[in-house]
Amino acid sequence: SKQVQLMEVLKKEVRAMLIAAKAGLTPEQLEEQYMAMVCKPLPLQDLGFQSTLELVTQMPEVVRVCSKNGTLILKAIADDATKGIAKLVANQKAKTRTKAGKKTAVKVNATSPTKNSKTPQRFQTVSAGTPVLPATVKAELQDLLSSSPLLLVDFDQAFFRRFGRVFQYRQYGFLSMFEVFRSMSDLVVVEQTKAGSLLVLRKYLASEIEQDEVPQASAAEMPPLKPICETESFYQAALLMNTELVQTQAVDLGDPLKQVSGWTNNLWTFSCLIPRSFEQFPPTPEIPPDAVQDRSLCSLPPLKRRCLVGVIVEFIVSPSQFYIHICSREASYKLQDLMFEMRHVYSHKVASDKYIMPESAVRPGQLCCVMVSKWWYRVIIHRVINDQEVEVFYADYGHLQIVQKSWLRFLKWHYLKLPAQAIPCSLAWVKPVEGTWSTAATVLFKHLCRFKELVGIVDEYVNGVLYLFLCDTSSKEDVYFHSVLRDMGYADVCGENIPSQEFEELNPLALYVQPRGKQENAEMVEPDLCLQQESRDADSETATSKL
Fold it and tell me: Which residues 6+ apart lie within 8 Å of 300 measured at CB?
């Protein structure tokens, strides 16, 4: 029956989740992780159960229910196919701190796996370090601490007030909030005070030092906090003159009929001075000269074959279709700085309204930006759904999402310079046993990759997709993900890279992002806003003199 089939699939998924969790999961954590991985809640009602605990008690061969300090903990019972994986997880180091000499190496020449071997030869050990926070989460924490330092005991409440949700550090692989901020030691300092641990942003400390050392600038020297509104100067002058005419006539309290007559004559004279071209075209919002209209983002330069590189898997559809970020301090800072700057600029209503996109610009392939949960992201319109919605591709993260048209804005030219950070990838040398990847295989792959810095071994590019081996070096033995999928019975190791069917059907990055060489050869010249402003000023002076 359907219920029996559903139960068998669910058992595989639950076992895969619990095996990946070394310390086990509470029933609530299992519910959260299932929702995060499968994107739907546990099918309790479909199977006739009232609670998660009732469900797992009907899986005695899959789940062992334990009690720790009064809390129920669910742990996996490995079968013959998963004993090896369970052993590897059990041997995982409790502390993943590593010495400086074992940091992730980039572009290290290593012996390439031989095509006859099922497992790549062991490469030079490269430690992946502690769990890694996603760039968006780091940006949120920076934003929270940017206004003032914060006591650690007040963090949970402050985060909830700011972002409307509880900060779940365990879902990112951390055991405590101290570990979270320790992993951000380059951005956040934890100071010990009488009131407790104080979280201070390093930029905040630097600004205090600068205030002590650098003389304060006068208000006239400071740049404007809001972008200058580029409304047509002629209409500003016309509005000013119109206001002056009304105020001048209002002072004359003599003969009311004479007042009205004089006012009318002045307005008639003023209207005659306005050129006919301005009468025919009412003022309409202009597209800013620094708005990106017909340009594309460029991709990152290709990685060299056989090199080792630190990666974070950002978005997963299956082992044959996922997107990664390269782990480097420079790239991470550039993306975070971009997000902060975009939030600062577009949060001002004047700037936000200035970059509103007209209906004619909302078309497939248009590069723009979108606001989601107060943050702005670079996106490319993939398709127009209806009058209110569009589907967009996140160039820096790799996923598609349907958003409101009203959330879109033109992208400023300045934000075009950073290459698209998402890299389309497929796991090297594997193919699914059943022709397509099962849900259990994808869930296991997501667990292996979840919020963790991994080592990628570059094999080759096929049709613009990077094929690489993924390895977790945080345990005593290096864990190669293609071997795990093979040992679990989900994949065959074929010794060659079969083109990803998923990417052949749709690869938005190949559709909308230019290879780096083409973009560089396209003579990308930023609009000279100074010259345009001088031209506008000259036109303004001419218009004023005519008036």
Answer: 326, 419, 420, 421, 423, 516
